[in-house]
Amino acid sequence: MASVGIGIIGFGVVGGGVIDVLRRDRGTIAARTGVDLELRAVISLPPYKTTDVLGAKLGSDIGLLTEDPQIRIALLLVGGTTFAKDLALACLAAGKHVVTSNKALIASHGDELFAAAKAKGVAISFEAAVAGGIPIIGALRDGLAANRIESITGILNGTTNFILTMMEQKQWSYHQALAEAQRLGYAEADPTLDVNGTDTAHKLAILSRIAFGIRVPLTALRIEGIQNVTAHDMASAARLKSRIKLLAMATQRDEGLELHVAPTLVPLDHPLAAVHMNYNGVYVVGSSAGPQLFTGQGAGALPTASAVLSDVIDVALGRAEQTFGSFGFVHQPKPPHFLAEADERTASYARFVTPDKPGILAGITQVLSARNISIRSIYQEETDEHQQASIELVTHPARGGDFLEAVAEIDRKGLTVATTVCYRRL
């Protein structure tokens, strides 16, 4: 039985979850893996919610961890990219392996951190940085290593998925659903990074880098949030046998890599349509394995702690050194090409608010046809008291720029009386 000293930086939700798991299951982990995890230090700023940390030293001095020769692995469980980066570099400089749940840190500063790790001969592991308790990093890196990854489509943020679920199931407004998510602890007091898609984008950048073997700057991603999703949009999606989900999508095409985060209509017969509440789901298509679905709780103390401790065990057993090749040092014989939004190929949804007069529908379809946009389905509501009607349509996959140009022309021609609402469709 090997005893491995560990130290935790950050005594919040995830840090507390790790301690809870160790308190309950340390013996089970040791029996299953042959590794006895000894918690020796917890670094956090006071006030502490409890001082019961399994007999470990508790304080705010990082030296309690970096200067303890018996601590081999540092669990970096704080957010942000400035203070967290300094702490990570301090641990690496001290020769400690680093396990982290900080997706923004890895996405923004991965190159620098992995270079520092290589210089010291230690590893960085980050399974908990994406999709909580779902082992998606390991699946892409190891389980699907014999595949050329064709696409990744994911619900990677439990907060937004909960909000959209409540809007659909309870017919709540966005603000009502957000307030409930905050009450239940699924959303932060400032939920901006969740609802505007930034959190999801960080996770997609990490997954894309591992799956496609290229460096993915955040500037290569188009990011849209869910702040403008309305009850009318949810009702329209239901009428079209779809649900709106905030999807992260990375698709390898002959022309280049297509990357975006956006609220998207997901048909009810697609596996991701069944991922509800605060759950995450990742749909991966491999060249040999075909479609694979990974789903589970994407956040929370215990699911994230599960992923953190899985990484700790991998590091302790020497299985994490391969992270040098899977993230930090990617061979790129030529710069990758990222597709512009206009060059995406996607099915689309549009809702036109039109005056009730002859020739409107014909005018809309004529503009779409002129740009080779083929209509998959169409629905027209009854005229309202203002003598206006909504025309909703879904297209077959087409060049995204052609579709957006057609919609702009339709609005310019006076065929509509309000700005047209558009969504991608899976």
What does this molecule look like?
By secondary structure, the protein is of the alpha/beta class. It has three domains: 2-129, Rossmann fold; 136-297, 2-Layer Sandwich (Dihydrodipicolinate Reductase, domain 2), CATH 3.30.360; 345-425, ACT domain (Alpha-Beta Plaits), CATH 3.30.70.260. The protein contains 14 helices and 17 strands. The chain has helices at 13-33, 63-66, 83-93, 103-120, 136-143, 158-169, 174-183, 192-195, 198-212, 231-239, 301-316, 323-328, 360-370, 400-412; strands spanning 2-9, 35-43, 57-59, 71-76, 97-100, 124-125, 149-155, 222-223, 242-253, 256-267, 279-286, 290-297, 345-355, 375-380, 388-395, 398-399, 421-425. Strands 7, 8, 9, 10, 11, 12, 13, 14, 15, 16 and 17 form an eleven-stranded mixed beta sheet that branches. Strand 4 (71-76), helix 3 and strand 5 (97-100) form a beta-alpha-beta unit. Helix 1 crosses helix 11 (301-316) and helix 4 (103-120) crosses helix 9 (198-212). The termini are far apart. The model has no long low-confidence stretch (mean pLDDT 92).
